[in-house]
Amino acid sequence: MADRIKVLLVDDHQVVRRGLRTFLEVQDDIEVVGEAADGAEGVARAEELKPDVVLMDVKMPGMDGVDALRRLRELANPAKVLIVTSFTEQRTVVPALRAGAAGYVYKDVDPDALAGAIRSVHAGHILLQPEVAGALLSQEENNNGQGRGGSLTDREREVLCLIADGRSNREIARALVLSEKTVKTHVSNILMKLDLADRTQAALWAVRHGVTG
């Protein structure tokens, strides 16, 4: 099927990769296109296979998940990265989210929930547990961006509000009766004006500064 979500599995444990593949092979709209055993191989395979979503472990030998995320960002790789981890500590998950991950799930996740998470990040949503969102917000306390929101236009603030609500570009376009291309332009302008790296940071900034619906 041409519209299947292409997924790359990156984990140093073969048993975990096999389990994830087994979970996903029963989904009609998801296709596992490859596997990698560490971050470096994951980056190389992502460049080769052009997946839509990468399921990435955090703790791996050699290049770990956080470094792999940073490398993918440097290469401007468009794949959405969903962290799959057995670690619940904020000090493990937060750096991955700040490096560009679209969210995270735990390795004991229910198969249907895992498939739903893949579909969600593929659609442009951000998956944040409340406690991790709080930790990220607390790290923004020392940023001096409080006054930068004044440079946003009314339309950009509307778009930012919908980003904070977890909406994808397509959903924002539908809600505001705009083209998806126009929404992408607004998102780029928001990130530039607020000096933010990605939608995750934009959503957190919006929550921190009260730009919500």
Give an overview of the whole structure:
This protein starts with a strand and ends in a 5-residue tail after the last helix. It is α/β, with parallel strands linked by helices. The protein is built from ten helices and five strands; from the N terminus they run βαβαβαβαβαααααα. The model has no long low-confidence stretch (mean pLDDT 84). It is globular, with a radius of gyration of 17 Å.
This entry's quaternary arrangement is: single chain
Low-confidence stretches: none
Report strand %: 5-15%
The separation of the N and C termini measures: 37 Å
Number of DSSP strand runs = 5
- Strand order, sheet with most strands: 2-1-3-4-5
Short account of what is shown:
By secondary structure, the protein is an alpha/beta fold. It has 10 helices and 5 strands, in the order βαβαβαβαβαααααα.
From the structure above, extract its key features:
single chain; 213 residues; alpha/beta; five-stranded parallel sheet; 10 helices; 5 strands; 51% helix; 13% strand
Compile the SSE list and pairings.
Layout: E1 5-10, H1 14-25, E2 30-36, H2 39-49, E3 53-56, H3 65-74, E4 80-85, H4 90-98, E5 103-106, H5 111-122, H6 130-139, H7 154-164, H8 169-176, H9 180-194, H10 199-208
Parallel strand pairs: 1-2, 1-3, 3-4, 4-5
Helix pairs in contact: 2-3, 4-6, 7-9, 7-10, 8-9
